[in-house]
Amino acid sequence: MTLIIASILSADFARLGQQVEEAQAAGADRIQVDVMDGRFVPNITVGPMVVEAVRRHTTLPIEAHLMIVEPERYVADFAHAGADIIIVHQEASPHLHRTVQQIHALGRRAGVAINPATPLASLQEILGDIDLALCMTVNPGFGGQAFIHSMVSKIERLRAMIQQHNATCDLEVDGGVSAETAPIVTRAGANALVAGSSVYGAPGGVAAGIAALRAAIG
Ligand code: DX5
Q1: Residue 112: partners with Cβ closer than 8 Å, 6 or more residues away
Q2: Lowest CB count within 10 Å: 16, 25, 91, 152, which one?
Q3: Cα dihedral 187→1→170→7 (10° resolution)
């Protein structure tokens, strides 16, 4: 079954707990917390304290997507705050193998994300060690951006790489996922879809947003 991951970046932070509960009640499979430091990406969002707050409102697995420089300095804080999956960017991790080992040593699942222009080859040596490969389908930093359609062939090639190197690894996509693009990325090989504005910005509300994604991917 294709996983739907609600990204709280587009949620109403004034009532975040309730918004997280709505996503769980509507059938989301995971919750993603987007962590931005204003350096790796041109935006500043949240830290471990918000993961802790989200943890109190859901039993779903929580992904901490670290769009920060030097992520290795903070993985323990996010693990202790309640993140089940910690995703670091390949572009921010010169010692990626060590960082992945660090995340596993904390008893958490490890994910590696790559930006749209970053070649798949940068994942080749680490693919066998990770639980999730995240192919960004927008340039990270903001919700509500347009899906980059040239990423579809990259997703197909990543699916083939995963088949070859680590068939248990999730292929996750993030950015511009909607009822229109969700069938395209699942056909290309993605099994985990992060959605922010199409869930929290859906005219009919969170449940309608998730139902529309489910209906689109069948
Ligand atoms: C963007 C974040 C995404 C974002 C997706 O840098 O990593 O998780 O919230 O939002 P939408 O689904 O609106 O593109």
Answers
A1: 87, 88, 89, 90, 93, 96, 100, 123, 126, 130, 132, 133, 134
A2: 25
A3: 90
In angstroms, what is the span from residue 127 Cα to ligand 1's centroid?
Answer: 23
Measure the CA–CA gap between 42 and 174, rounded to whole angstroms: 17
140 CB within 6 A, ligand 1: yes
What CA–CA distance (Å, rounded) separates 73 from 83? 15
Q: Catalytic pick from 37, 131, 170, 174?
A: 174
What is the chain's mean pLDDT, rounded?
A: 97
pLDDT at 165: 87
Binding site membership of 193 for ligand 1 (Cβ less than 6 Å) = no
Active site residue 12: no
CA separation (Å) from 188 to 31, 47, 167, 195? 23, 33, 15, 17
Position 194 scores a pLDDT of: 98
Give pLDDT tens digits for 49-68: 999 999 999 999 999 999 99
Q: Is the minimum distance from the CB of 189 to ligand 1 under 6 angstroms?
A: no
The answer to whether residue 202 scores a pLDDT higher than 90 is yes
CA distances from 123 to 162, 173, 177 (A): 10, 15, 22
pLDDT at 167 over 80: no
At 134 the pLDDT is 98
Residue written as token pair 């009640």: 25
Instruction: Give the pTM.
Output: 0.98
